[in-house]
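Weekly sync, protein design subgroup
Attendees: M.S., D.O., the rotation student, P.L. (late)

Item 1: inverse folding check
M.S. brought a backbone from last month's batch and wanted to see whether the design step gives back something sensible before we order anything. D.O. pointed out we never logged the input encoding, so this time it goes straight into the notes. Structure tokens as presented (270 positions):
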């Protein structure tokens, strides 16, 4: 049974929150990989050879075809971030509004994180030097500095927007602060642990797990700590209430399990 609470204070059922994270996070990852990389692979006249939970292999691409495929995943993330923000502004009920907030925050942080990560390491989709997703480009160090700066500015903007949006939903005060920590840290932990476990199924070893699954989850959404421990004591508490929805938890578990079982070991398309 859900615990008793005061209706004038924000409150979110923990199991509904876990279920929502288990439902949305695999779908958002599939959007990046399948709607982004895989669809662009086909659009450039090629055929994916491997579809994994956290990577897509598109052989025989080179030049701008390879770059379009590399950029497509983050492009989808940016589109989803914008759509989620617009949905959040229009949504009235707490559960859809929280779902839109999750999509905005996770996809916004991950998109900005990709630019920062590639700028700092030359690894990943946006690496501009030889071996990176966009490489080789002329003046790769200049590109890397630019990518890191753009990513950092975007990341800070997403974190600040996420804090403001949660503040508008939950208000201020001690109870709102507790619910804010609950939401942010549940998304962070559920996303990171599930990504790590699913990534272990991949056949390419620890490199994919560390550079894709763990980097995009534990690393990409690290800004959730800033969200969790931000405070808006100047705001009145809001009656933001999400009761227990067992169906959300059941569907979330099933979606994550299917994601792990089907894409974790990789689909080979020959």
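Designed sequence read out in the meeting:
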């Amino acid at each position: 049974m859900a615990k008793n609470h005061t209706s004038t204070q924000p409150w979110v059922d923990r199991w509904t929150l876990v279920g929502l994270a288990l439902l949305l996070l695999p779908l958002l990852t599939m959007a990046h990989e399948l709607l982004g990389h895989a669809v662009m692979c086909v659009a450039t006249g090629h055929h994916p050879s491997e579809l994994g939970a956290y990577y897509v292999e598109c052989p025989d691409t080179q030049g701008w075809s390879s770059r379009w495929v590399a950029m497509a995943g983050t492009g989808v993330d940016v589109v989803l971030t914008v759509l989620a923000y617009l949905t959040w502004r229009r949504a009235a009920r707490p559960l859809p509004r929280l779902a839109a907030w999750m999509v905005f925050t996770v996809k916004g942080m991950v998109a900005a994180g990709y630019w920062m990560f590639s700028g700092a390491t030359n690894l990943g989709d946006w690496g501009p030097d030889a071996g990176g997703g966009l490489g080789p480009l002329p003046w790769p160090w200049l590109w890397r500095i630019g990518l890191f700066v753009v990513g950092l500015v975007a990341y800070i903007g997403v974190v600040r927007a996420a804090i403001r949006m949660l503040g508008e939903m939950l208000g201020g005060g001690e109870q709102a602060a507790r619910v804010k920590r609950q939401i942010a840290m549940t998304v962070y932990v559920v996303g990171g642990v599930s990504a790590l476990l699913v990534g272990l199924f991949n056949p390419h070893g620890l490199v994919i797990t560390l550079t894709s699954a763990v980097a995009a989850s534990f690393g990409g959404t690290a800004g959730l700590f800033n969200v969790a421990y931000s405070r808006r004591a100047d705001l009145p508490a809001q009656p933001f209430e999400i009761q227990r929805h067992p169906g959300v938890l059941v569907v979330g578990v099933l979606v994550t399990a299917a994601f792990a079982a089907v894409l974790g070991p990789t689909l080979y398309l020959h």
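Discussion: The radius of gyration is 19 Å. The longest strand covers residues 11-12.
Action: P.L. to compare against the previous round before Friday.
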